[in-house]
Amino acid sequence: MKIKLGTEFEAFLASYDTPVYTGLRVNTLKISVEDFLEIFPYPLEPIEWTEDGFYYREEDPVTKHPLFYAGLYYIQEPSAMSPVTVLNPQSGDKILDLCAAPGGKSLQIASFTKDSGLLVTNDINDKRVKAIVRNVEKYGVKNVLILNDDQHTIARVLPHYFDRILIDAPCSGEGMFKKDSKAVKAWASYANETCAKMQREILEVVPDLVKENTELVYSTCTFSEVENEAQMLYLEALDAGFKKQYVTSDFFDVKNGVAHLWPHLIKGEGHFIGSMIYQNGACNEAVGIGNNDQCVERKNSRHFVKPQRQDEKKGSNRVKKDRNARAEIVNEMPTVLKSFSEQYLNQVLSGTFMIEREKIYLLPEQEVDIKGLHVARYGWLLGEIKRDKFVPSQAFAMGLCMADFKNVANLPASSVQVLKFLKGETLDYDEVNAYGTLTKGFCLFCTEGYPLGFIKVEQGLIKNLYPISWRMM
Ligand SMILES: C[S@@+](CC[C@H](N)C(=O)[O-])C[C@H]1O[C@@H](n2cnc3c(N)ncnc32)[C@H](O)[C@@H]1O
């Protein structure tokens, strides 16, 4: 680092004695930043490089607040909010977040696209995929396919499919040494060359994932050149179609078109961001980022743009079924859901439904072929069929707006009943009833106008349906 940073080294070193910056990102799928700032009780300071990110004070118990349980904000290290701002996802895009767990950047992508198009979010580690599922449910993301696959499988099943790809690569974590002492220890076993090899193996399949004009962001939280700049060069060398997109930023140290986030220069931890566009055709002046030398066909180019798949018809609602999953795909709302919907919902759910092992899902708008993929979640889990009745899921509650449901109890975040709900305790009928009209059956339990989950009213009693694994400790 001394060689790399020269005169800045002392400042870099001193940055390790300053406190870690703690950040949260507002979930704009559920609430606007303005509305959030009105109801959030603790002081916040904007993070310069993203409109929905804020620093909070470490001493404030932000992860204990009911609004956190309502999925109104996600705790994210400030620098980690930057790669998605460079990727700049657009509404309707088909996006792959290849190394996604626990899912912070996937949630940010969904905020950018307003949960439109299709977000394919993947991680190779099955335990960590569970965290993506939880976060996707909590933050109300619906147009999503969550996978637990390796890069080869995804490239084989969904070749040349994506408009944008984020590779937030597994890395030696040097940039996180201040925040996480475990990262220092882990470095011993995940040193730069070990990680660089892993990264090359991931990047190797990228030529099979991209199509013309696919934009890609490669990010890490390390300072190591073999894991950063060298990997960008590796990708360029794999296929002449990859052209560097010059990252521009008012906030970060940008050299040769890639961005370094240095902990002594910004209020955040160490990060690296590089960006590429895939253009196998003639060099496109309009992109405004290319150097002439980038247009030269490389001799070692080994990939060709394969024709787009026949079934890639935009806007189609048809979804192919995974033969192994024994799933039934239906365009009509299943009967059990229909009667639930008539009794409880203020608006009709429409789209394509999937019934798989008694579970009912509303599938993403965007057609996708999932045959051969290891799917952890496909679309929005609405609920389960139990004894010929529909029982709504926690994910269903979290994907609704308060106005969508007929029976609602909406309590202030300061209410003891909200705390009891989140702890899975018995609720007081009269106290809850004071904030809604409790009628027999399911009721959406909300705080400050945002759903937390379901309760069920039976014979003057309230059954708390908040799942055990979601409860506040
Ligand atoms: C830096 S973390 C990702 C953090 C995540 N993007 C976020 O913002 O929450 C890197 C992840 O890559 C995953 N990973 C490692 N090798 C992988 C591979 N070959 N394919 C997919 N994921 C992989 C790890 O399990 C790890 O969860």
TrEMBL record:
Pfam families, alphabetized: Methyltr_RsmB-F, Methyltr_RsmF_N, Methyltranf_PUA, RsmF_methylt_CI
Gene Ontology terms, MF aspect: methyltransferase activity
Residues engaged in binding S-adenosyl-L-methionine: 99-105, 123, 150, 168
InterPro entries: Methyltr_RsmF_N, MeTrfase_RsmB-F_NOP2_cat, MeTrfase_RsmB-F_NOP2_dom, Nol1_Nop2_Fmu_2, RCMT, RsmB/NOL1/NOP2-like_CS, RsmF_methylt_CI, SAM-dependent_MTases_sf
Keywords, comma-separated and alphabetical: Cytoplasm, Methyltransferase, RNA-binding, S-adenosyl-L-methionine, Transferase
GO biological process: methylation
Residue ranges of domain SAM-dependent MTase RsmB/NOP-type in the record: 12-279
Keyword Glycoprotein: no
Active-site residues, Swiss-Prot/TrEMBL: 221
CDD domains on file: AdoMet_MTases, RsmF_methylt_CTD1
Family: Belongs to the class I-like SAM-binding methyltransferase superfamily. RsmB/NOP family.
Entry protein name: RsmB/NOP family class I SAM-dependent RNA methyltransferase
